[in-house]
Amino acid sequence: MINWLYNMCRYEQILSIMKVIYFFCLLLVCSSCTRSKSGNSLPQGSIAVDLTKPEKASLFDYFESIEIIPLETSDNSVIGWMYKVINHQNRYYVLDTYYSHMIVLVFDDTGKFLFEIGKQGNGPGEYLYVYDVIINPFTGFIDFSCVGKKKIFSYDLQGNYIKSTDQINPDNARYFGIHNIAAINEKTHVLVHASSDPFKIYYYDLDEKKISHYEYEENLMAKRLKNYHPFYEYHGQWYFYHSLDRTTYLIGPDSLVEAFTWDFGKLNFDVNEIDFPEEYINDRNKIREYSDRLPYNIRFQGHNSRYIMAQIWLSERKFANLIYDKSTQESKLIEHFTESVVFCPRVVTDEYVLSFCEHGDLDKYLSEEMLDEPNRQKLKTLKNAKEEQNPVIIKYKLK
Length: 399
Hints:
5 helices
């Protein structure tokens, strides 16, 4: 009987120990899952960054390789001013906003020119000035925002004109011009505009053919500043940021929702509270000079499952890259990479980051030591070209 009781006590002790071990194992698994989930989601709250303390980093801390894609230069494919690039289904769609061109040129994944999309003019299916283009995931078409005609033009991906919206002109705006666009569902485009009214974001209902509502009120100074690429898309969702606003917003179906906020500590400011001289309001050069003296100006931003990447213009008249790592919850402000080259992200995905530069600026972005042998040879060929070439796409493959 005593032996039986003794064995039962030992059994209970072992069972208790096993329960404790099981509990801790479960805790570790849950913790791991939480970390994994947080690495793929946006940070909750604010991201602290000290803009006065830049750190050192190598491009190869983030990327495993770099590929250069020279865009073919021919009589039919000369690019005047490369404003935007979209990589879609192994093709590059390049928006050229040179004033006498205003067109999208299409290249394959090696940079070979294929054809162009769009046509300047006053005829049917023609436009005057293009500010932005997107590939609409709901229609499969490429949509052009046309400032002068106040319309959105749609073409298929082979360049055939499909349709355009009616003229978009809110009743309360003395002047209205469509700038950037985003397609957030089958029936709604969201527009950033140049307008005389205080709102920046317009929701346009394609079925009702009218503006459904407005979002994001800004003051006159912020309105006068150029907001370069305020929309970006990630995994089917669109985000909006303003160059002087620390908060990035998810574009919901009927409103903007705060996604995350940069915290620059004592350098934080509210653009609506700036004491801006009224006599500068109609002088764009004065506005630009004044804004350059502000602590920061966010010129680009994008994110993927691991990183948030931004390029910031600092008050000392210099650019810096800001990279936040979701997996470690750490951010770095990088003024100079150890490779002593410019890094200017334009598109951020889970697999790669895209940039581009003018042919004559290649030395600022790349060195032969950064490339494998095939890309090194491409770089040498480009440098030895006797005539100016089209811009070059730079593809940084993420680790």
